[in-house]
Each structure stands twice: as structure tokens, then as C-alpha cells.
Amino acid sequence: MDESLTVFQTIDQIAVGDIRTKIKDLLGAFMFGGDEIEKKVKILSGGERTRLAMLKLLLQPVNLLILDEPTNHLDIKTKDILKDALKAFDGTLILVSHDRDFLDALPTKYFEFGNQRIREHFERYQRVPPE
């Protein structure tokens, strides 16, 4: 991210179409309210940068997201925001995580890799003991 830009400018650069009218609402949903949208990226904390990067990513015109341990170093409120945003994502999500709460809330299909096997699950994840 360009550290010389503000939070608002960072999102304003990539927002296209009707979503442009909702930039402040989107930023608010990612915990950037009031004067926080005028903060420069260079002074954001690690968690704030992560939230901004996720919002930026979700606004990109893609239909596939690959996330590796996206909840690492996030507080509970930020995890919930990310969870809600990913639920609303209209595309395919490949998610690698050990965060059971996060995993239970999102996927409709799971692939479990372990013991030299791949197991497919279509409902809530339940670990199958090794044979």
C-alpha cells in the first residue's frame, strides 16, 4: 500500500461503480470511522493495515481469494468483520486456517489434508480419526 495516501484515498483509488457511493460505510464496517479515514497509511498499526488490506482485496474485481491463516494477529472484533465480509464475497474462497471458530462459520465444503490422504467434507468440519 502507498504509505503517503490516507485510508480513504487507498480505497477511493480502487472502488469502481456504485460502490463508490458507499466508501465511508465500507470503511466504517472495517472500523475506520470519523477522522480515522484521514489517517495516513504510514501511521497505521499492524491490525489497521490488515483491515485496510482486506477491504482493498475484497473490492478488487476477482472471483477467487486464497487466504493463508488470515486471522493470525487479529482481535475478535476484526475477525468478525473479516468473517462477515468473506461471507458476502461472491466468489470462490480457498482458506487455510487452524482457527476452528473461523472455519465453522464460512465454508460449505472442506478438504482435510493429513496422513497422506485428502478427505472431503460437505457439512461442518469434524475431524475424522486416522485409520
Write structural notes for this entry.
With 131 residues, the chain is α+β, with helices and mostly antiparallel strands. 35% of the residues lie in helices and 15% in strands. The protein is built from five helices and four strands; from the N terminus they run H-H-H-E-H-E-H-E-E. The protein has helices at residues 7-12, 23-29, 46-59, 76-88, 100-105, and strands at residues 64-68, 92-96, 110-114, 117-121. The strands form two sheets. The protein has a two-stranded parallel sheet with strand order 1-2. Strand 3 (110-114) and strand 4 form a beta hairpin. It is elongated and about 50 Å long. The model has no long low-confidence stretch (mean pLDDT 85).
Itemize the secondary structure elements and their pairings.
Elements: H1 7-12, H2 23-29, H3 46-59, E1 64-68, H4 76-88, E2 92-96, H5 100-105, E3 110-114, E4 117-121
Parallel strand pairs: 1-2
Antiparallel strand pairs: 3-4
Helix pairs in contact: 3-4
